[in-house]
Amino acid sequence: MSIKVRLLGSAVSHWATDPWARGSWSLIGRHGTPQDRVALGTPIGDRLRIAGEATHPTRAGMTHGAYEQGVAAATGAIELGHTSVAVVGAGMAGLGAARTLHDHGVQVQIWEARDRIGGRTAGVDVASGAFDLGANWLQQYDDNVLARLAEKLNLTTIPTDFGNPLVPGAGPVPDALEDELRKRLASAAPQAGVAEVLDDWLRDPAPWTAAEITRFVDAEIVMDAGAPLDWLSARHGFEPGVGEGDRWIVGGYRLLTTHLATGLDIHLNHPVDRIRVDPDRVTLHAGSAPGGNTTLEADAVIVTVPLPVLAAGAITFDPPLPPDHQAALTHLGAGRVEKVILRFDRRFWPEHGYYRVHGPAPRCVSEWLDATAADGTPTLVGLFAGPWLDTLWAGPDDAIATRCAAVIQEALG
Ligand SMILES: Cc1cc2nc3c(=O)[nH]c(=O)nc-3n(C[C@H](O)[C@H](O)[C@H](O)COP(=O)(O)OP(=O)(O)OC[C@H]3O[C@@H](n4cnc5c(N)ncnc54)[C@H](O)[C@@H]3O)c2cc1C
C-alpha cells in the first residue's frame, strides 16, 4: 500500500449464506432456457402465482424486472376478481404486487421473513452515509419503471460509465472481442456450458491472446453471474443487464422501497413455510411468526421469494408445484456476487468513477464504484465474484473489509 489511509467504516454482504436469498440473482443453467423463467411465472390455477426477478423472461436479475412481475401477478389477481390476496416477500416484486392490489382496493397482506422490507435491495448506514448492500443501479435506465419513479420522487441519481472502466494493467477491450464472444455463445450446443465454449476458444485464441480472452470473459460473464462457468448456459447464461446509462441512487434504494411500502399492511418476521391451495381459498402458514399469528387465509397468493429459496424447499406447497414449475427450479439457479462498502478518510484512487480489478488467478474479479458523491466522504463500493471469495469472505466482517480494502489499494493506490 503506497498511501496510508484509514477506514472510517465498512459493510459487507453475505448473499450466498443469507437463508432468505441463498444467492445473488437468478441465472440460467446449462439445462435451462428462458422458457423456464416463463414456466415458473405461469399462474398455477386461479389462486397461486410465483413472481419475482427469476420469472422475467428478459429483465431477470434486476429490480425493475422483479417489480414488473409483481405488478403483472397483481393485475392477474384483480382481473380474476379476488378481493383478498396474500403476498409472500417484501422485495421489489412483493412491493410492486401489494402496491398495485392496495391501490385497486384489494385487501392485501405481505408476509415477510426478514425484520425489514426490500429483500435484495438492502440499505445500510456506513459512517453516517446511506448505501446499498444489494442492488445499486437502476439498469436499462431509459426503459425502467423504477427509474421513472425515482424521477417522480426527485431522487438524485448518478450515471456510471460501464463502457469505460479503469482497469489497472489492461488496455481497452476491442469491440470485435465482444462480437466474437457473443457469436461463439450463440452457436454453442444446446446444453453446453460457458466453460466448454471458452476452453474451445482458448485452444485457438488468435488474433487475441489467451490472457485477453480470459480477462474479457471474467469481466463480462464471471462478474455478471458469479456462477461456475461449467454450470452456466452458454446460449442463455449471458442475459441483458448492466449497460450504458445505468444510474445509482444517492441515498440508496430504500428511498424507493419505503415510498412503495407506504400504507401497506406488512408483517415482518413472518417466514412462510407452507401454502395450501383449496378450491375456494389459500392458506399460508408461518410456524415461527411472532404472537401466534401463524396462519392467513385469502382468495389468492403471490409468492415472490427468491428462486433458490423455493428450490431449497423452504415452502411446502399443498398440492405440490406442477412439473414444469419444478423443472424450472432445477434448470435455473443463482450465483454468488458479494458486495463491500468502504469509507476512507482520504481518497487514494484516481477520479474515474468505475474501476475493475482482476485478482491473482483467472475468474477472480471485482468491480468498483466511486460513491464519494453520496456525501463527499471518499467511498468505494466493491462487487466481488469468483473463487477468491472463498478466502476473501472468511472470518468477521471487519477482516473481510480490510482484505477488500487491500485489494483496491494495491490496484489503485
Ligand atoms: C449484490 C447485488 C447487487 C445487485 N445489483 C443490482 C443492480 O445494481 N440493479 C438491479 O436492478 N438489480 C441488482 N441486483 C438484483 C436485484 O436486487 C434483485 O433482482 C431484486 O431486488 C429481486 O427482487 P425480488 O422481489 O424478486 O426478490 P427479493 O428482493 O429477494 O425479495 C424476496 C423477499 O422474500 C423474502 N422471503 C424469502 N423467503 C421467505 C419466506 N419463506 N417467507 C416470507 N418471505 C420470504 C425475502 O426476505 C425477500 O424480502 C443485485 C443483487 C445483489 C445481491
Number of strands: 21
CATH topology descriptor of the domain at 26-121 and 254-334: FAD/NAD(P)-binding domain
Helix content: 25-40%
Looking at this structure, what is the CATH superfamily of the domain at 26-121 and 254-334? FAD/NAD(P)-binding domain
Straight-line N-to-C gap: 7 Å
Written overview of the protein:
There is one protein chain. With 413 residues, this protein is an alpha/beta fold. The chain has a domain at 26-121 and 254-334: FAD/NAD(P)-binding domain, CATH 3.50.50.60. The protein contains twelve helices and 21 strands. It has helices spanning 34-41, 63-79, 92-103, 145-152, 175-186, 194-203, 210-225, 254-261, 307-311, 323-331, 389-392, 397-412, and strands spanning 7-12, 26-28, 48-50, 84-88, 107-111, 123-126, 129-132, 137-138, 157-159, 247-249, 265-267, 274-277, 282-285, 295-298, 300-303, 316-318, 332-334, 337-344, 354-358, 365-370, 379-385. The strands form six sheets. A five-stranded antiparallel β-sheet has the order 1-18-21-20-19, sandwiched between helices. Strands 3-15-4-5-11 form a five-stranded parallel β-sheet, with helices on one face. A hairpin with a 2-residue loop joins β6 (123-126) and β7 (129-132). It is globular. The mean pLDDT is 95. Flavin-adenine dinucleotide binds at residues 13, 15, 20-21, 24-25, 52-53, 61-63, 66, 88-94, 111-114, 119-121, 134-137, 139, 271-272, 304-306, 309, 314-315, 337, 339.
